[in-house]
Automatic annotation (TrEMBL):
It is found in: Membrane. InterPro entries: HAMP_dom (IPR003660), HisK_dim/P_sf (IPR036097), HssS/ArlS-like (IPR050398). It is a multi-pass membrane protein. The keyword Kinase applies. It catalyses: ATP + protein L-histidine = ADP + protein N-phospho-L-histidine. GO terms for molecular function: phosphorelay sensor kinase activity. This is histidine kinase. SUPFAM superfamilies: HAMP domain-like, Homodimeric domain of signal transducing histidine kinase. It comes from the Bacteria.
Length: 328
């Protein structure tokens, strides 16, 4: 079974994908806005932090130079400041250590030729000291300024991806939990459709629409099972009655065949005496004047005998229904 077929056959997966797609779209938009906002915030914070640190460093150096100049003036001495003196002062007091930790790839130096030109792909921060005779210069590449932004981006990506996966997982769990009664109902319906009417549909314990649907289906399945049991009992009873009717019909057929054979036999036995009576009757009619008393008595005796024989056969024939009724 392919993945697409599994997705099409699972409403839970389909609903989870729709919700996950919607949540992902919103999540991506929010992360993009946060990344854009954080870029501006990090840029402004880096610029402001660097300028503030450079101003504080320039202020310290300027104060030291002014104090040294004032001390030399009061002592009536000449105080000379050059570029090497300022660099040595910065080096001895480690003024650029904090900035160097914040901007690891930056160049720090003292300029006495005004503001230097900015190179492509870099930032230049300049702060004047000692009445603009010197300038503290910090030249750093863009990576130092945007380094925090890249860290924030990585953090946002990892956090966003983790949060998105957690949201999708919890969405799937919640959807699967609420749709689980439907899965049970579908499996039970397939078993019932295959003829397994004894399958028990459990009570979902839920009061929402899905729970009511499952409970109603369980009641319907129980009613159907009772109805099918009654139908099976009626089928057994009808089968028994059908067997009894078949046996009765078979006995009736046997009696009917017996009657037909009896009637055929009786008819064959009645033919001879009736023919005898007919012949004697014809003889009497044709030769009455020529017959004497003895011949007439013989004919009479034969006719009476044949008549008695026919009467006896008729009595047996009339007695057959009574015997059949008694037998039944």
């Amino acid at each position: 079974m392919s993945i697409i077929h599994k997705i099409r056959s699972s409403f839970t997966t389909q609903l989870t994908l729709w919700v996950a797609g919607f949540v992902t779209a919103i999540y991506v938009i929010v992360i993009a806005l946060l990344a854009r906002f954080s870029e501006q915030v990090v840029f402004e914070e880096s610029i402001e932090t660097t300028q503030q640190a450079l101003e504080n460093t320039a202020l310290r150096i300027d104060n030291i130079l002014r104090q040294a100049d004032m001390t030399a003036f009061l002592e009536h001495q000449t105080f000379t400041v050059d570029k090497a003196f300022v660099e040595r002062l910065i080096r001895d007091n480690s003024y650029f250590v904090s900035l160097n930790q914040f901007l690891p790839n930056a160049q720090f130096y003292v300029s006495d030729n005004g503001t230097p030109e900015q190179k492509p792909g870099s930032f230049v921060f300049v702060e004047p000291i000692y009445n603009n005779r010197f300038h503290l210069v910090v030249m750093c590449p863009n990576d130092d300024i945007y380094g925090k932004y890249e860290t924030v981006n990585v953090f946002l990506f990892v956090t966003g991806l983790t949060g998105l996966l957690l949201i999708i997982f919890f969405c799937w769990k919640v959807i699967a939990r609420h749709l689980w009664p439907l899965h049970i109902l579908a499996d039970s319906a397939e078993l019932i459709a295959d003829g397994n009417l004894d399958v028990r549909i459990p009570d979902s314990g839920m009061k929402n629409e899905i729970g009511r649907l499952q409970n109603s289906f369980a009641k319907m399945q129980m009613s159907l099972a009772v109805y099918m049991d009654e139908m099976r009992q009626k089928q057994v009873m009808l089968g028994r009655q059908n067997t009894e009717l078949e046996n009765a019909y078979s006995q009736a057929q046997d009696y009917d065949n017996l009657k037909n054979r009896f009637l055929s036999n009786m008819t064959d036995q009645m033919v001879t005496p009736i023919d005898t009576i007919c012949e004697l009757t014809d003889k009497v009619c044709d030769q009455y004047e020529k017959m004497d008393q003895t011949e007439m008595e013989n004919i009479q005796t034969k006719m009476i005998a044949s008549t008695d024989q026919v009467t006896h056969l008729l009595e047996q024939l009339l007695d057959v229904p009574n015997k059949k009724h008694t037998a039944l």
